Amino acid sequence: MNEKLTCLWATKTKDDEWWSSFVTSPLAIALNYFVVDIKWLTPNLITLISFITAIVASLLIVVGGSANFVCAAVLIHLSHVFDCMDGQMARYRKTTSQLGGYYDRLTDQIQVTLWFVAIGYAAYNQSHNVLPIFLAFIGVAFYSLRGYVKYVMIYTKMSQDSQYLEALSKKESTAKKEDTAGLEFGFSANLKWFIAEQRKILAFNEGVFIFMLSLALVLDELTPMLWVFAVSQLYLGLMRGWQRSVQIKSNVVSIVNK
């Protein structure tokens, strides 16, 4: 294995999301192998390309039709490959930045919303039933709640402890996962890793959405997928809200008892 590929593989996020882990992230590494040294192609530009690709996919879904649905499924995957590429390129070049990370997360949130709004509209257009729009709304709202309660908890803990972010940063730096699979590992180790990765599907995050959306578009089964999306996000959003409240409460009690 040559040095460039080794360095690129090292940029792969150790705890990738489900579909990203063994599909879109390796594809991103393969593409980066050919373009990572092109100076004018920056990580932020790839983030923009990913976002534009996601918008085009959303428009194709809204227009409707089997051919447009299949094209949208391909573009959704391509958008996510680009989404993996930008961070890998930044880490490879050692040019990571807070602003780049901000734009990456912001566009991720917007494009997930665009995709499911478009799917809800397309399913409504097919059935003339308002239920798909309602399901898309519930799913997007509670998916957003999952992130919102996390940042509310961080803000609350910062107001209680000014050193909280510093302690959190140290905890994350010491909790980095070691590689257990990859190009330098054998077939058995990679198979065990692959099997273990499958439980991540229950997280129902962006990596799972990529798979769900593309499969639903190719099969033209939009409403069943929206049911899965809405129910999973309703459950996870409420569960995360309850978990964060317990964490805040336990922190308040520990401070009082000091």
The average pLDDT is: 90
Q: Report the CATH topology name.
A: Four Helix Bundle (Hemerythrin (Met), subunit A)
Order of helices and strands: HHHHHHHHHH
Domain unit count: 1
Strand content: under 5%
Cα distance, first to last residue? 55 Å
Q: Sheet with the most strands?
A: none
Q: Tell me how many strands there are.
A: 0
Shape: globular
Q: Tally the helices: what do you get?
A: 10
What is the CATH first-level class name?
Mainly Alpha
Quick recap of the structure?
The chain has a single domain (3-256), classed as Up-down Bundle (Four Helix Bundle (Hemerythrin (Met), subunit A)), CATH 1.20.120.1760. Helices cover 79% and strands 0% of the residues. The chain is built from 10 helices and no strands.
Structure description:
This protein is mainly alpha-helical and 258 residues long. It has a single domain, classed as Up-down Bundle (Four Helix Bundle (Hemerythrin (Met), subunit A)). The protein is 79% helix and 0% strand. It is built from ten helices and no strands. Helix 2 crosses helix 9 and helix 9 runs antiparallel to helix 10. The longest helix has 35 residues. The radius of gyration is 20 Å and the shape is globular. The mean pLDDT is 90.
